[in-house]
Amino acid sequence: MEKITLPWKFSALVSIFIFSTIVFSTASTSDLIALEITVDSIKDVTCPGEESGAITISVSGGTGLYTYSWKKIDDGTTYSVNAPNITGLGAGNYEVLVTDEGGDSITSNPIKISVSDSEAPVISATDVYGSADFDSCFAQSVALNVSVSDNCSVGEPTGTRDDNLPLTDPYPVGETVITWNVTDDNGNAADPVEQRIFITDDQSPVAAATNFTAYLDATGNVTVTTADIDNGSRDNCPAALALSLSKYTFSCADLGDNLITLTASDGRNFDSEMEITVTVVDDLAPVITAEPIIVPTDSGECFATVAMTATAEDNCASDSQLTGVRSDGLPLTDPFEIGTTTITWTA
Q1: Residue 110: beta bridge partners?
Q2: Nearest to 228 by CA among 206, 238, 242, 243
Q3: 125-200, what's its fold?
Q4: Number of C-beta neighbours around residue 87 at 10 A
Q5: Least confident of 30-34, 49-53, 293-297
Q6: What is the C-alpha separation between 182 and 224, in angstroms, rounded?
């Protein structure tokens, strides 16, 4: 009995083992997990044109080992990198195709590498000191000495003068302020920088004067102005030219020639002086006042004693010498005969 049953038992065991193996195999193919891509990290580039970007992904699901095919979506460039991470990338949009050993594949969504420059450019500008051109109140040629630096690409800075004139226009004597600005290619704006242009006037004025004749008025005075004396005084900065006289007013005490000085100043350099003569003239004659006199004869006489009432006034004499001549040739103090006697007065 045992010899018979043993083979039967063995045969049953074998059948059970084979059946179990078949069931396991069919179950593993139906329970596979779908491929899935996860973007682990993205390294952006700092500046346009750089190729320092990188992407790292991880893959789950599928069967066996994976293969990777990287491509730049923007221009179709493909990369011979069979790995979950790729480096040396520039700014742009990328994708990766992942295939497992069973032939299943998945393509990632677009992965973007951006320009991450946040560093502003820096403007350097030094103040400028210069002198006005000869016989001019401006400096034509001024070197502005401005530069700009940036970690990426940046253009030339732009400057705005506080007098709103073009940068290439001449710069006037005094101070002109230029405000400089610039924005780099990634939109980062530099802090504005002010540059001052100092232009000095190193040329002295020139005084030019002419002699002048001044006439006293009725009060015995006269005032002379710089316009009376000036004969083309000049300065390279006309607006700064100031003229003055050592003496402006004259009176009867100054009759005749008087030496005075015309001074030209620009407030920046040495003054210029010129001495001239002002001749003071009194050309106003004295004014005589004489009213007709009608008087009766003295009591019991055929003549009359007359007191003279004529007066003379002059701008330069408080008591002018008055002289009268009678038409009858007699002295003024003699009695006057009946009738009309004419007196001619001079002063």
Answers
A1: none
A2: 243
A3: Immunoglobulin-like (2.60.40)
A4: 13
A5: 30-34
A6: 59
